[in-house]
Write a structure and sequence with these properties.
- This protein is α/β, with parallel strands linked by helices.
- The protein is about 55% helix and about 15% strand.
- It has 8 helices and 5 strands; from the N terminus they run E-H-E-H-H-E-H-H-E-H-H-E-H.
- The two termini are about 15 Å apart.
């Protein structure tokens, strides 16, 4: 069994999770913990190439199944090359997105069905699950406005408001079905308040190792 701590961070576009992952990494390092941060899609040379394919805006309509399979391929490589070896060394792994993104974006918002998506992901990741998943809850309208202020938007960010509303409802529903794994954070709070709450949660998990 892996000896480290595996935490994933989920949310819609503009939820602020990536900022909080970076701040948590800094805190863990100050606490003397070895930490590895990964992002999805990405995290290995192959996975980063797949990221470019997936997120680059394009005129061609991408099949939902093609989209899902590319995400899962990138995840499979990341789990094999980075996440499992890191956990076996006792490292804290912070994943900026993991399997729940596929369950929500492709399984729910794209309509592929969560059970089929979950089965495919299980095969690709050897059923590796995070100890905790932190869901950054923000309305799609607020999140998308944050994304727009950052500049150019990628293919997923450029989807319709209806799509992002479906994503948000998907996260709400998913977090309600697995309350023992999910921690829901109000992403409308100030970054400092979110960080304080997040550190309290992670400190408890570290004490239990």
């Amino acid at each position: 069994m892996p000896k480290g701590l595996f935490l994933s961070f989920e949310g819609g576009e503009g939820s602020g999770k990536s900022t909080q992952v970076a701040r948590l990494e800094e805190w863990l390092q100050r606490e003397g913990r070895e930490v590895v941060v990964v992002r999805e899609p990405g995290g290995t040379p192959l996975s980063e190439e797949i990221r470019e394919v997936l997120l680059r805006p394009r005129e061609e309509e991408v099949s939902p199944w093609a989209e899902l399979c590319l995400y899962v391929a990138a995840r499979a490589q990341l789990v094999q090359d980075v996440i499992i070896p890191s956990l076996e060394r006792g490292v804290v792994v912070l994943a900026d997105r993991y399997l729940d993104s596929s369950l929500v974006y492709q399984g729910m918002a794209r309509g592929l069905g969560t059970q089929r998506v979950r089965t495919l992901i299980g095969w690709a990741t050897s059923d590796l699950m995070p100890t905790r998943t932190f869901f950054f809850d923000v309305t799609p309208e607020v999140g998308l406005e944050r994304s727009r202020r950052r500049g150019s938007m990628d293919r997923m960010e450029s989807e319709s408001l209806r799509f992002h509303q479906d994503v948000h409802r998907g996260y709400i529903d998913l977090s309600a079905t697995e309350p023992e794994r999910f921690v829901v954070l109000d992403a409308g709070q100030s970054p400092d308040d979110i960080q304080t709450e997040l550190i309290q949660q992670v400190r408890t998990l570290l004490n239990d190792l």
